[in-house]
Structures are given as structure tokens and as C-alpha cells.
């Protein structure tokens, strides 16, 4: 019998805190683990329509080495919703404000999907603030109309009518293993999407799926080539947004980037195979290989 998966079970026994910080006027929710006084800072950024719980299986392992922060990005989760379409510059500005709020001049930044897009842009625009960079099934390198429409359809259906079925469909789309029900993740996200006004917030999040808006935010060879931070591009065998070749292409544009593929995972390798992800991630961040 399959073991029941629970967000709380993933965090039980882990010294962590949940709270809110003021990031230049934006009330920002976070999960934090690890000594904030004497360890380097690591910030974990989730994907479109996501929230900090994307990293519940990674906090414990990383807290041994880093002051580890998983945030609800601008307009997401329980963080303030600005009420306008969100482009990459807005997320980067918010990330810099978070670093200021926690007193971090520099940080390692690891992002999944949208979070990877934001992390890459932050490394380009603020090289003095990003130490090591991880792009995990990252967006921002292409505009695939079919994928963009799929994201809009699933996301808006879940936000406009956050039933068990619509939210579960959005969660299962992230995963390679469709046989699991992901009940606890579904319940967590359903609570997020049931907040008053969240459908409007989701429309603002979906701005980057609009072809014109996306085009002016995309990263190309010049942008990726300007990244100076040591970079790991992490891809998966079953990512629903882009194939392994696209991940390899991104890595080829970043000077000295390392490229890794995790088999048997979809868009959330940090959750689906946390043990492998944590090993690869920590080896890179700690310069062990």
C-alpha cells in the first residue's frame, strides 16, 4: 500500500518557521530553515501559480548548510497581489527587496519554471547579488504556443473554480507519475486558490503566457551569455514544458554551465525525487563536484 504523502509529514521534525516579511512594502510569506547568523543565504523560487510548499522536501537537507528561504513570489500564494500584469522585472525587483529585507547582500538563487526565469534575469541584472545559480526546468527561453495555452487553461480553470478536480489536474500536470493523487498538495493549493480575488491574481500571473508580453521578457544568447554566476541547469526526462534538448540548449548559452538530467521526473524534480535533487543541488551549491 502506497504511503500517504503529506506536506506536514515532510516538515515534521524540521526546525523551520513560517512567517511574513516586509519586502519594500510587499507583505511576503516565507518558509525558512537554517541558521540565519552564520550560514550563506539560499533563496528557492517556485513556478507560475505556485507557492513555497514546492520545496517542503528540500528545506531540511539545505538547512544544514544554508539559511534557506522558500518564498511565495510576488502575486503568488499568500504574498501581496499588486493588481497588475506581472512581468519578469516585477519578480526580480521583489526578489531584490526580499534580499534587502533579510539583510543579504548576496545569495545563492535556485528557481523552478517561472522561478528559474526570474533567477536567471536576476543573475543578469544583479550579478553582484547572485553567488551560485540553479535553473530547474526553467522557463524564459522559448515561446511554445501549445504549452502556453495549456498553462493558461489549467491555471485559470483551477483559480476560477478551485474544485478538487481542477486543482488536482493542475498539480498532476507538474508530475511524471500520474498514478498518485497528491491529495495534500491539492488541498494546500486549493486553500491558496480559494482566497478572495485569486482568479484576478492568476490572470496577472498568466501575463507571461501572452505572446507579446512573453516576447519582450524572453532570454536569448546575449542574456544567458551575460550570466557570470556559476550555474547548474537541471532538467528532467518528462518535463511537460520543454524537452531535454531545450535544457541542454539553455546550458550551452551560459558560460561554464553544468547540465544534469533527472530521470523519471516531470516539472517538480525537487519534490518527485527529493533525494536525488538534494544531492545534485547541494553538490553544486557547495562546490563538491
TrEMBL record:
GO BP, sorted A to Z: acylglycerol catabolic process
GO molecular function: monoacylglycerol lipase activity
Domain AB hydrolase-1: 40-273
Alphabetized UniProt keyword annotations: Hydrolase
Gene Ontology CC terms, in alphabetical order: membrane
Keyword match Glycoprotein: no
Record carries keyword rRNA-binding: no
Protein name stated in the entry: 2-hydroxy-6-ketonona-2,4-dienedioic acid hydrolase
Upper taxonomic lineage: Bacteria, Bacillati, Actinomycetota, Actinomycetes, Mycobacteriales
